[in-house]
Amino acid sequence: MSKQTLEFHWGKHHRAYVDNLNKQIKGTELEGLQLGDLVKHAYNNGNPTAYFNNAGQAWNHDFFWESLKPGGGKKPTGEVLHLIERDFGSFEAFADEFKQAAATQFGSGWAWLVGIPAGSHGEDKFGKLAIEKTKDAVNPLVLGHYPLLTIDVWEHAYYLDYQNRRPDYISTFIDELISWEAVTARLEQAKATINFYDVKMSSI
Amino acid sequence: MATATCSSILRATPWPSQILSSSPSLRKGNTRSSYRPIMMEFHLRPLPFEMDALEPYMSKQTLEFHWGKHHRTYVDNLNKQIKGTELEGMQLDELLKHGYNNGNPTAYFNNAGQAWNHDFFWESIKPGGGKKPTGEVLHLIERDFGSFEAFVDEFKQAAATQFGSGWAWLVGMPTDPLVENKFGKLAIEKTPNALNPLIPLLTIDVWEHAYYLDYQNRRPDYISTVINELISWEVVTARLERAKATINFYDVVVPDDQYKYK
Question: Which residue among B114, B136, B172, B250 has the highest number of C-beta atoms inside a 10 angstrom radius?
Answer without folding.
Answer: B114
